[in-house]
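Our preliminary data section would be incomplete without showing what the modeling component actually yields. Below, a chain of 176 amino acids is followed by its predicted structure, encoded as tokens that our downstream tools consume directly.
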Amino acid sequence: MKKMLLSLTIATALLTGAAVCSATELKIGYIDIQRAVVESKRGKSANEKFTVEANRIRDDIMKEKEKIEQAADMLQKQSAMLTDDVRRSKELDMARRQRDYERMVEDQKTELQLREAQLTGEILEELIPIVRDYGKKHGFSIIFERSERVVLHIDPTLDLTDKIIAILDAGSQKNQ
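Predicted structure:
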């Protein structure tokens, strides 16, 4: 709600300012940051790295889960032959292993979220200056980030995303 109010206030101020200063032309554009991150070469490369890492972690988690399930099956099969003390000890050990597994899953989930944020952040650090430079070079008064929650309608001809992706990709090729 605050974002929508802020956007409406900014748009009103810009339009009012444009009416007052009719000598200056108001040039507006927008960029879909999410699309730029996902569709750029850097974004695709980062996504591939992230997918490899996520698959490795998923495989590790599945292996650990299988070990726990096998141990639980063994305990269930042997429980009739075990003394009460040994059975209780093994049940406590299984409970500990299950807690450790759940902690590992949560830790890995957090690690993946942090890694994804890091990869996205690296691309954004490169993307934001490109958008600013593009805006200055082409005389834009303002370039918005596309957000469907804030802007209900926007003319697609104002979309600068493809141009920004092309510049980002060209910069990525120079760095490789």
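The chain has a mean pLDDT of 85. Residues 2-175 form one domain. Preliminary results of this kind motivate Aim 1 of the renewal.
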